[in-house]
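Comment on both lines for my students:
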Amino acid sequence: MKAALVIIGDEILNGSTIDTNAQFLAQVLDSQGILLMRKLTVRDRAPEITHALAQAAQGTDLIITTGGLGPTNDDITKQTITQCLDDELVMDDQVLAHVESFFARRHKPMLESNRRQALVPRRAEVLHNDLGTAPGLWCTWGQKAVVVLPGVPYEMKHIVEHRLLPKLQGLQEAKPIQHRYIHTVGVGESVIANTIAQIEADLPPTIGLAYLPSPGIVKLRLTGLAHGGDDMGQSLADFSRQIADKLGDIVFSTEANDSLPKAIGRLMAQTGKRMGTVESCTSGYLAHMITQIPGSSSYYDGSLVTYSYALKEKMLGVKHATLAQYGAVSQETIHEMAQGGLQALDVDYVLATSGIAGPSGGLPNKPVGTVWIAVADRQGVWPKKFQFNADRVRNIHLTAVMALDMLRRRLMGLA
């Protein structure tokens, strides 16, 4: 099965709103083995929507649209698609009852524009929206299916997960595409490519390898296209294992939707111990990465953000003489920050960060991007110096990623 996405909205085109819907829908289609052929983004204008639908229909079986289902005058998606399908809008009593209940529960007046959201194409199947007033729609266009979804991300995702996915899962017996993932940290993609060059050269034509880099992280994706009676799943598993074995301890996961904070969470949960962070240059970003994982409260106690010299001394017990002689960005200071964090937070593991994120503040012997990180536990402190050369935001992100990797290595007995 082949699909196309049509993303509708002026706010997407002019950059005022980031298009997260297309990313989510692409991942859903991929998970179901549905090949996404194209993505079109158009304004809230009937001619553009009509033209996009015609383009999306070329060589596809499924078209999914998002956006333009609200109650205001610029929301014309439903009317336009209904005309394209040569259908008519009718009032759906169940949707109307839901909309009325939605406003009654909030003690807000229901306007005529809100009532019109219960109008649906006569031949459409309603995909109920539990979280909002604009229903999703499953329409038939000849031999094709056209799915119309609201643009509000949380509403769209809820409809997809609870209404659309069950329908998609019954559309095809076998998934023509399959993936395997290898997540690595701390090494650039060119080094990785050189390390696994022979394995990549041995890949059959039905398996492709993609490098998906982000700051500090490189995700490798093996994609297999089923061909005849090939056991694609086994082939992918074999090559994935070969690559992971070759790359060794820079691999932190082979799960599809994994992340380094998730991997840290699993390792910490296995220890039954607790951790905290003391941050200077990352100023809470490291804590944010850790606590974005559900369940992190079972192993993470909190953070002390000690940006100034005064707070490093007061909260972490860093010696005034150490700061005066070596400065905040030094092995001596990061050592005392980590030790002080263990005492102040009363935890088993601490990550400490201190660096010059930029764009100013660099010195001849400490240029912008100079960072010290330490991991500490009751057995000792392990500091490490890094030299990043990126902008401020990237330097902060890289510092947090490398700090997490240092903890990963400590927990795994690699450092």
